[in-house]
Structure to design on (201 residues):
């Protein structure tokens, strides 16, 4: 598994020699440039990044994709039920699965599907007991690789740790420059003041 990230710093430009899919999908294309084509690599992402053209562009490079998508209307059919639709777009088979748990979630993939259906255990607030409901394989696959909230939190913790290291490194460089210019320690910003100035900026 490979991890990479990009800090947003302004306008998101399209990737050279690839179609302009809009800012959010262009981020995925840029971060997947180093993935070898046609080697059965898989990419997972959340609904902010998802677009049909992104699924197709990745599939044409031989990279499978699975992500959540946003839909405006849901007609709840009961917990554990699901609907699956398949289409071919620009020669690429795309499947969408809408699954109903406590709320509806819709996933789209160029490689995964609902079958085989498994069961998962959920707490039922009406009966005050745990029940088993059906869960399409696409949901299990997405959760396995995107992770539950604890794993997402660890990603955010990694980002905050990274930012902390950058700030401390910048502060140490600031102190070194001040010493080089013969500025006394009392006139230098301490780390807290340095952080506050960054936040204000």
């Amino acid at each position: 598994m490979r991890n990479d990230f990009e800090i947003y710093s302004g306008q998101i430009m399209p990737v050279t020699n690839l179609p302009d899919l809009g800012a959010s999908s262009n981020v995925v294309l840029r971060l997947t440039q180093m993935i070898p084509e046609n080697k059965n690599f898989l990419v997972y992402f959340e609904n902010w990044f998802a677009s049909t053209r992104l699924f197709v562009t990745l599939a044409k490079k031989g990279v499978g994709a699975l992500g959540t998508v946003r839909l405006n209307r849901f007609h709840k059919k009961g917990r554990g039920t699901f609907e699956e639709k398949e289409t071919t777009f620009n020669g690429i088979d795309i499947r969408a699965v809408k699954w109903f748990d406590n709320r509806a979630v819709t996933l789209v993939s160029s490689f995964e599907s609902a079958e085989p259906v498994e069961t998962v255990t959920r707490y039922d607030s009406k009966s005050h007991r745990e029940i088993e409901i059906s869960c399409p394989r696409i949901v299990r696959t997405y959760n396995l690789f995107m992770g539950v909230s604890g794993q997402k939190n660890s990603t955010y913790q990694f980002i905050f740790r990274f930012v902390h290291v950058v700030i401390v490194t910048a502060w140490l460089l600031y102190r070194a420059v001040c010493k080089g210019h013969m500025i006394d320690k009392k006139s230098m910003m301490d780390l807290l003041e340095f952080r506050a100035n960054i936040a204000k900026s």
Notes: The chain has two domains: 23-147, 153-200. Residues 23-147 form one domain. The chain has a mean pLDDT of 83. The first helix runs from residue 23 to 31.
